[in-house]
Design goal:
The complex is a heterodimer of chains A (about 300) and B (about 425). By secondary structure, chain A is an all-alpha fold. Chain A has 13 helices and two strands, in the order H-E-E-H-H-H-H-H-H-H-H-H-H-H-H. Chain B is built from 19 helices and 13 strands. Chain B has helices at about 40-55, 70-80, 95-100, 110, 150-155, 165-170, 170-175, 190-205, 205-215, 220-235, 250-255, 270-275, 285-290, 325-340, 340-350, 370-375, 385-390, 395-405, 415-425, and strands at about 15-20, 25-35, 60-65, 85-90, 135, 140, 145-150, 180, 260-265, 290-295, 310, 315-320, 385. The chains are: A mainly alpha (about 300), B alpha/beta (about 425).
């Protein structure tokens, strides 16, 4: 290979620029994933640091556990709430502020964005203290119903226990998406909207025909953020419910934490983490495929 | 036995370093389990400082953590080959993986003839027949029924002598707008450790439990099923309100102290929350009206009458293979931690149980009323095993989550027993 040619110089320059980031990425992302994959196929004793080959033992155990399927279902609830709740609501709120459809825009923008500036653990404890059996909301409801033993049934329901969690997630993260959309809306040339209005386009038509197509690329990126964030989300649910009652609000990250760091079964915890990584890759590829079909590759 | 609070971030993670004044001091790395927010926590600091003053030739490097963070750190240090010189350990399965791995020293050779100075049950063999930790107390009862006798009197009720009498109280208690039994059931371990363990000790007995763990009996056997049915019934009848499933460990003592529940179930360690001199939840006058007992007997039970679930206390252990100099310094610390000075300080601090040290002169110790009652509690109640001290983790986990499902009516005792049997069988 001729290292003095123009092409070689470009390749070497490219490699030099990429190498530092690539090395760091491989060390802190690539190596742990590969190590985790290896551990998931072993019986690993953390105290003696010995790993004995165990094949698919932990994967079989995981897929046979009802807890895994409950955690998977709850994780998908979080993904759905993020993608089909936080993003659309954030988009609509941003549009309302951008088109100046309400007064006190600064106040509303601040209020919606405020939760994302708080620590998730603080938010979790705040909600927990409000809705626990000795919390303010529960005691208020006991006064209203004149029943000192009144319990908020939904938080103990096997079917609906994720609803309060989903509501908290909406409250916290919608502001983030709103701000991102607002920043991108401000990049749209106002003269396009003015021209549409002169031509008699309605607010709905402007929204659907100008705004939405202009932000389709942002929607895709935010969807990927939302999916990745949902799959790795831990802090809020840990502080809010700890996965309980029983495992009714447990998501995959809590399920993994319980086995890896409560029972110190790192092999099983690694197997669960591999499922999370796989799901993340599959869902993100799916989003990109859908986006390409709907909008086309150049829009990204 | 698990002693957890509901909020992980209440976990303490700070380092305290006590420097020796002289050069050439032996350095001891100590990973300690210590909740600085607990009532009476200042006593612990006083004990450490006293040791440092009395032993200027030993430099202590202490890291203190609490709850899960402690166990995670200990596991991580052990995995990295950096096991601390001295650490806080449990006698049973809670730290069973580390004590069973051979990296913790057997303390019997260090104890020597001094073994006669301790309550025999406290220094009985632990896992593998060794003494991995020198217990602070004579033992820990994970089940205790705290009774507010003032409320009982107000309702015209007498102390229940049988479980049937206890159940019969429910209409009167609920009619007065009160709870029957308060229990911090939001934490999954509480119902298993503080309630079911004691019931299983009565309905099935220790001998059956050890057989079930070994596979010579089944968790679907009648004795265990009966215990699960009792828990189910407690919730179904309202003796324990369903709202307790959302009652956090930190909030539960307040419910009892504020006269919202007639009874309260927790471990003996919770006494200090009510009696601690500086910040206890009850005045001495109020403590006089609290009785410490256990759940009344169940008709036809096969275990001992009036029993409680019990385990040898926690304490400090040492890393195996320390140099002679380090081992001597570490043993000084381990033995001081349960010795007369430290035990007396705990007694005077008001957050205590009977020490493991026998014949300790406590005639000059003024104890709050509830602590006095705690001392009187132990001789009255025979001991049975605590489930999470002997059952493997997979089984304990299913019991813990399953009890909440049972409380909420989402699973039957028969279904849960079958799932527990399957979980234990998978690791036999």
């Amino acid at each position: 290979m001729n290292f003095t040619s123009e092409k070689s110089k470009k390749v070497i320059t490219y490699l030099l620029f990429v190498a530092p980031a690539l090395v760091i990425y491989l060390l802190i992302i690539g190596y742990p994933i590969i190590k985790s994959l290896h551990l998931s196929f072993t019986d690993y004793n953390v105290y003696t640091n010995e790993a004995v080959w165990a094949g698919f033992k932990w994967y079989i155990k995981m897929f046979n556990q009802s807890e895994f399927w409950m955690a998977l279902k709850n994780t998908m609830v979080v993904v759905v709430v993020s993608v089909f709740g936080q993003i659309p609501i954030g988009f609509v709120l941003a549009y309302i502020l951008y088109r100046k459809l309400v007064r006190f825009r600064g106040f509303f923008q601040g209020m919606v964005f405020l939760p994302i500036t708080l620590s998730m653990v603080i938010v979790g404890i705040l909600w927990l203290k409000m809705f626990s059996s000795v919390g303010a909301v529960t005691n208020l409801l006991r006064l209203i119903y004149n029943d000192p033993q009144y319990t908020i049934g939904i938080v103990n329901s096997k079917t609906w226990a994720m609803v309060p969690v989903a509501f908290a997630l909406l409250w916290i993260y919608t502001g983030f998406y709103m701000v991102v959309f607002l920043a991108n809306l401000q990049r749209i040339n106002p003269s396009i909207i003015e021209a549409a209005m002169i031509d008699g386009a309605s607010e709905v038509r402007i929204f659907l025909k100008i705004i939405v197509p202009s932000l389709s690329g942002v929607v895709v990126i935010l969807t990927i953020f939302a999916i990745a964030g949902s799959l790795k989300g831990f802090d809020l649910i840990f502080a809010l419910t700890g996965g309980g009652p029983s495992n009714y609000t447990e998501v995959l990250t809590l399920y993994m934490y319980r086995y890896a760091f409560t029972y110190f079964n790192y092999s099983f915890g690694s197997a669960i983490s591999m499922v999370i990584v796989s799901m993340s890759i599959i869902l993100i590829i799916l989003v990109r495929v859908i986006e390409r079909k709907l909008v086309g590759p150049k829009q990204v | 036995m698990f002693r957890k609070t509901g909020v992980l971030l209440c976990v303490l993670a700070f380092s305290l370093v006590v420097f020796a004044s002289c050069a050439g001091a032996v350095t001891i790395k100590w990973l300690h389990y210590y909740d600085i927010t607990a009532p009476g926590a200042e006593v612990e600091l006083d004990i450490i400082q006293t040791f440092a003053k009395l032993n200027p030739d030993i430099k202590l490097e202490i890291e203190t953590l609490y709850d899960q963070a402690y166990h995670q750190k200990l596991a991580a240090l052990a995995a990295a080959g950096q096991t601390p010189d001295v650490m806080y350990l449990w006698p049973g399965e809670r730290t069973g993986k580390i004590t069973g791995s051979g990296i913790i020293a057997d303390l019997y050779p260090f104890l020597g003839d001094d073994i006669d100075n301790y309550v025999p049950a406290a220094v009985a063999p632990q896992l593998l027949g060794r003494l991995h930790e020198l217990p602070m107390f004579s033992g820990t009862a994970s089940h205790m029924l705290y009774v507010n006798t003032e409320l009982l009197d107000r309702l015209g009720l007498a102390m229940p002598q049988t479980y049937k009498e206890l159940k019969a109280m429910v209409p009167a208690i609920k009619g007065a707008g009160l709870q029957g039994i308060a229990i911090a059931a939001k934490e999954t371990w509480v119902m298993q450790s503080c309630l079911l363990s004691a019931i299983v000790g009565r309905t099935a007995g220790d001998e059956w439990l050890m057989k079930a763990i070994a596979g010579e009996a089944s968790f679907e056997d009648e004795g265990f099923l009966w215990a699960l049915r009792i828990v189910e019934e407690m919730y179904a009848t309202g003796l324990i309100s369903e709202s307790n499933v959302q009652l956090g460990y930190g909030d539960a003592p307040n419910v009892f102290a504020e006269d919202k529940a007639v009874f309260y179930i927790d471990g003996d360690w919770r006494v200090s929350a009510f009696s601690a001199v500086a910040d206890g939840l009850m005045t001495p006058e109020k403590q006089e009206k609290i009785t410490l007992t256990v759940l009344p007997d169940f008709a036809g039970q096969i275990g001992p009458s009036g029993s409680t679930s019990f385990v040898v206390s926690t304490g400090l252990g040492m890393k195996a293979g320390l140099s002679q100099e380090k081992a001597e310094a570490a043993w000084k610390l381990v033995s001081f931690y349960v010795g007369p000075i430290a035990s007396k300080k705990r007694l005077l601090g008001g957050s205590l149980k009977p020490p493991s040290l026998a014949n300790l002169d406590i005639s000059d110790v003024e104890m709050p009323p509830l602590d006095r009652k705690l001392f009187a509690f132990y001789p009255l109640h025979p001991a049975t095993l605590i489930l999470d001290a002997v059952i493997p983790a997979d089984g304990v986990q299913r019991i813990n989550t399953g009890l909440q499902e049972l409380a909420l009516g989402d699973i039957t005792p028969e279904q849960l027993a079958a799932e527990i049997e399957a979980a234990v069988a998978s690791v036999r």
